[in-house]
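Students often ask why inverse folding is considered easier than folding. One informal answer: many sequences map to the same fold, so there is more than one right answer. In these notes we will look at a single instance of the problem. The structure comes first.
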């Protein structure tokens, strides 16, 4: 048996920095020390990108059916042939790129569900390209939820500086209050506490943010805190979790508070992402909780402006793989 976990790297949108990042991870010292990275991507596309970013394809390039029967002991490229890759141009949104990103992701998920890889680290995809390809889900989290039959996934953004988990994700601000419930908030608290204990090896101190200004000011600016957030916190405390809140979001992220907080529970996307990206844009990792498989991703987009130029910063992708190694164990 392998002593190192096999981590599937999906190439993401072919027109973005994903192909370069995946190739970089195959030769990254830290990644190779702790895992066996395996790219799931189109070999022809990666052959085009490799010389442009001054990298090489791995020695092992195999079709999917060979991978399913092989004993993988070194960095490998699993060839997932995708249509129209010869016409892909860097930095250009296209349905072919959306379809390719989805196909590689779907294949990696199925391999993880079958136990042939230990975790998935996904390179960035483009939501517009996904839509043009006819994919109804807006991003990785929703696709993973459907393909793994997971009704309550949770998006966590993790780093050494700050960690935030989101109760709602890719939805309009106007729809957020209607998507909140005691059970959804409690679910995110439980998942976050469990994951932080696995990552940090100690019981976490969690802070739950309010939805409204001043956390509703006792119902003056909204009653979601009283009806939904406070009961969820009370139940979490009854289950033994260390939880504070609901705190007003405009003071929850002050330095003194952050120093004693393991992770924040945020009610909507930008509430958690704005402070997170200000502090950890280059090193942050997106972790999907509530799945039967381990999935991580760098916390940045496709960076079309620098695609195929050898300029992609590998820090977030490297950290995503290292978190995947921790969680897969």
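Output (designed amino acids):
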């Amino acid at each position: 048996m392998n002593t190192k976990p096999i981590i599937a790297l999906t190439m993401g949108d072919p027109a973005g920095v994903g192909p370069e990042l995946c190739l970089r991870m195959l030769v990254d010292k830290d990644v190779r020390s702790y895992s066996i990275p395996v790219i799931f991507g189109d070999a022809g596309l990666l052959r085009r990108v490799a010389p442009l970013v001054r990298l090489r394809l791995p020695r092992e390039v195999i079709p999917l059916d060979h991978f399913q029967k092989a004993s993988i002991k070194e960095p490998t490229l699993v060839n997932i042939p995708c249509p129209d890759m010869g016409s892909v141009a860097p930095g250009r949104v296209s349905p072919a790129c959306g379809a390719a990103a989805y196909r590689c992701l779907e294949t990696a998920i199925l391999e993880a569900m079958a136990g042939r890889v230990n975790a998935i680290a996904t390179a960035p995809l483009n939501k517009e390209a996904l839509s043009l390809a006819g994919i109804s889900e807006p991003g990785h989290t929703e696709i993973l939820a459907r393909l793994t039959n997971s009704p309550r996934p949770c998006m966590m953004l993790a780093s050494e500086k700050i960690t935030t988990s989101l109760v709602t994700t890719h939805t309009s601000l106007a729809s957020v209050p209607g998507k909140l419930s005691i059970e959804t908030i409690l679910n995110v608290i439980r998942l976050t506490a469990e994951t932080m204990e696995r990552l940090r090896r100690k019981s976490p101190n969690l802070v739950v943010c309010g939805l409204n200004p001043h956390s509703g000011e006792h119902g003056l600016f909204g009653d979601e805190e009283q009806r939904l957030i406070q009961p969820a916190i009370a139940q979490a405390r009854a289950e033994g979790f260390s939880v504070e809140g609901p705190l007003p979001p405009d003071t929850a992220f002050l330095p003194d508070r952050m120093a004693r907080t393991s992770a924040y529970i945020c009610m909507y996307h930008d509430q958690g992402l704005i402070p997170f990206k200000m502090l950890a844009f280059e090193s942050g990792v997106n972790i999907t909780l509530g799945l039967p498989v381990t999935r991580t991703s760098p916390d940045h987009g496709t960076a079309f402006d620098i695609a195929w130029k050898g300029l992609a910063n590998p820090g977030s992708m490297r950290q995503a793989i290292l978190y995947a190694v921790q969680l897969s164990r």
